[in-house]
Amino acid sequence: MHHYTELGLCNTREMFKKAMAGQYAIPAYNFNNMEQLQAIMTACIETKSPVILQVSSGARKYANQTLLRFMAMGAMELVRESGSNIPVALHLDHGDTFELCVSCIESGFSSVMIDGSGHSYEDNIALTKKVVEFAHKHDVTVEGELGVLAGIEDDVSHEVSHYTKPEEVEDFLARTGVDSLAISIGTSHGAFKFKLQPGESVPPLRFDILEAIEKLTPGFPIVLHGASSVMMEYVDMINQYGGKMENTAGIPEEQLRRAAASAVCKINIDSDGRLAMTAKIREVLATKPGEFDPRKYLGPAREELVKMYKHKNQHVLGSAGKA
Ligand code: G3H
Ligand code: 13P
Ligand code: ZN
């Protein structure tokens, strides 16, 4: 058993309390490799932002769970060396079984998500409660999910979303004991969230549902998944340099800012990082066809990621300067 405190990590309890009071959201950025992790840490150290490092089960398979734990330890070393003291949580994104959550907790994660949203309401409660009981023994915080987001996450794909029913939330929280809750109010996973016809704009998030939930459970931390904006500058760059991403749009930044100022305390962003990285790599390879040293395209991609994460912390989530 490696407890997260040995790694210098913290759980999300205090982070969310401060985010709720300060009307901002903690960034939850996914990583699968060294360059992504370096970029997240550099951006968050330089903007003095707390951060949640997210690992999906796909990331664990891709990068190896042991290596990821050591990478997180390395990230904490970077924080110490920088002389800053930003709070960092290591979080399992979309855990789908009790066993996976246990394995992550035992390997040093400070927070886990148990995503029971694909199950019936009662089965979701039973699974989530079981994870909470184990996690809380180790002071690890747990995120649950109620409602279904459209999109693809690992092996689970949902074609349509089902908004969270506010009337179920209180009961779910009381019976599971979760520390935060992911809800469905119109966001979706991936880089293809909306296909717009000419003249159409992205439909607004269902702030009425969020407000109803806030009223019923004041002060309880809410999580927004699927919150990439699908930044057009990167989609355009990808298309300019040989890629093909047609007609797509994400969640507009002003809607995320509004959410961050509410009970939404954690905002999940993965796809925008994938787009930024791919766009820059494509640009380098297209403009410098003789280049074959990976550092020469991964380095600029990492710099682009730093720029993008800083922008999110400073201008979207409001987490900059809050560490
Ligand atoms: O919500 C899903 C995240 O973007 C992680 O994606 O499961 O492909 O690693 P992944
Ligand atoms: P995006 O695909 O919108 O980046 O969402 C990521 C996410 O929700 C990770 O859990
Ligand atoms: Zn998600």
Tell me the CATH superfamily: Aldolase class I
CATH class: Alpha Beta
Question: Reading side by side through the largest sheet, how are the strands ordered?
Answer: 1-2-3-4-5-8-9-10
Number of helices: 12
CATH topology: TIM Barrel
Query: In sequence order, what are the helices and strands, one letter per element?
Result: HEHEHHEHEHEEEHEHEHHEHH
Rg, rounded, reads 19 Å
| Major beta sheet summary | 8 strands, parallel, barrel
- Strand content of the residues, in percent? 5-15%
Q: How helical, in percent, are the residues?
A: 40-55%
List the helices and strands and how they pair.
Blueprint: H1 13-22, E1 26-30, H2 34-46, E2 51-56, H3 57-63, H4 65-82, E3 88-95, H5 98-106, E4 111-114, H6 121-137, E5 141-146, E6 151-153, E7 156-158, H7 166-176, E8 180-183, H8 207-216, E9 222-224, H9 232-240, H10 253-260, E10 264-269, H11 271-287, H12 294-317
Parallel strand pairs: 1-2, 1-10, 2-3, 3-4, 4-5, 5-8, 8-9, 9-10
Antiparallel strand pairs: 6-7
The protein binds glyceraldehyde-3-phosphate (G3H), 1,3-dihydroxyacetonephosphate and zinc ion.
